[in-house]
Amino acid sequence: MTLEIEVIGVDSGRHHGLTAQEVEQLCALALASGGIEDGHVAVELVDELRMAELNREHRGQDKPTDVLSFPVDEDGETIGPRELGDVVICPPYVTDLREAVVHGVLHLTGMDHETDAGEMLALQAELLSWIRS
């Protein structure tokens, strides 16, 4: 099995400072930190209107936000390739696109900074320090 990362809203050139290949590498790093080496993830960059719509639909907040994650096969017990989920990012609402990608994908691994004791954000900072070194 392999890891399949679909990047939507980023062409082969640089977009918002990252290439599709860089987004894929960030996803792979974040997933590997959670022990996930195969499955499918989609990362999509959207505008403020689309993000506000998704945030309203799924979180009841009628405004754009920076990152939303939609895990699918959280238990990993599926036949065939695992559908890990989707990460949706609104570039005008993020200060660091790399951080947004890693943050969203860590949520797909089952981490949640709203309920843990700081582990997710600490891991996020560690992963980002590796790629910035």
What does this protein structure show overall?
Helix content is 39%, strand content 19%. With 133 residues, the protein is of the alpha/beta class. Helix 1 (20-33) packs across helix 3 and helix 3 crosses helix 4 (119-132). The longest helix is centred in the first third of the chain and has 14 residues, at 20-33. The radius of gyration is 14 Å and the shape is globular. It starts with a strand and ends with a helix.
- Counting helices, strands and paired strands, the structural category is alpha/beta
Helical stretch tally = 4
Helix content: 25-40%
Strand order of the largest sheet: 1-2-4-3
Number of strands: 4
Which percent range describes the beta-strand content?
15-25%
- The SSE order reads EHEHEEHH
- Gyration radius, in Å: 14 Å
Shape by Cα distribution: globular
Average pLDDT rating: 88
Largest sheet: 4 strands, mixed
Give the CA-CA distance, first to last residue: 30 Å
Q: Which residue ranges are poorly predicted, with pLDDT under 50 across at least 5 consecutive positions?
A: none
